[in-house]
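Notebook entry, structure prediction.
Reason for the run: the old model in the group folder had no record of what sequence produced it. Starting over properly, with the input documented here first.
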Amino acid sequence: MGKTLPHAGKYSVVTGASTGIGFELAKNCAMDGMEILVVADEPEIENAAVQLRSLGAAKVEALQADLSNEEGVDELVAATKGRTIEHLIANAGRGLGKAFLDQDWMDARHVVNTNITGTIYLLHRLAPRMRDAGGGRILITGSIAGFMPGSYQAVYNGTKAFLDSFSFALREEIRDSGVTVTCLMPGATETEFFERAGMMDTKIGQEKKMDPAEVARQGYDAMLAGAGEVITGWQNKMRAAVARVLPAGQLAKQHTKEAAPGTAKQ
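New structure, fully documented this time:
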């Protein structure tokens, strides 16, 4: 007899699912036999859907939409066709390196709009449906970056500080609804993030990172368990603990050593 899949057929929405952690989260959903709507702002989401269909998913739909604006989120909401959502995985995000004053403003705004505005608008649209149904799991991808001032990643770290905080607040507000909120807080992970953020000339861009499959597995398991948070990897747990006690100024100086342009050569 085959393995029983307790989540088979359940409907899950995964954003930022074309590559990296988001794709790996969607893979976990697929291997548990779920029906999945995967969303990203790039055409690669169609290729991701093809791979997910081969992994045992009951059904996979793909949507290319820009989740940095309300129109893109509205496209996603329309694509769910009013269905009951068991798992809402809000993973879409963008990074940006270099000093804030040297960044292009439109790039910086895109990070804020994707990581914060798009994420909380998505939750505002879909989480009430889950609450009304009396159950479900929400996973928000935050970061340990939210624990420290991100010199040379100032906007990105600021957005992750917002998401880390927001996830715990939302969890408390709906704690009696049957819906749980989990914050996934990874550290540096082996994805396209640093290349897209223009950080390949930095120390953190070149250092060894966690496997996105392992990060996703830990986040997925924590979500299903209804846990409030998961910090992936013992090194990241240690960094998070240190960040909670060191002065902010000292943390900013340490971050410069990792994220300032040219630090890869030092």
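Summary: The radius of gyration is 18 Å.
The old model has been moved to the deprecated folder.
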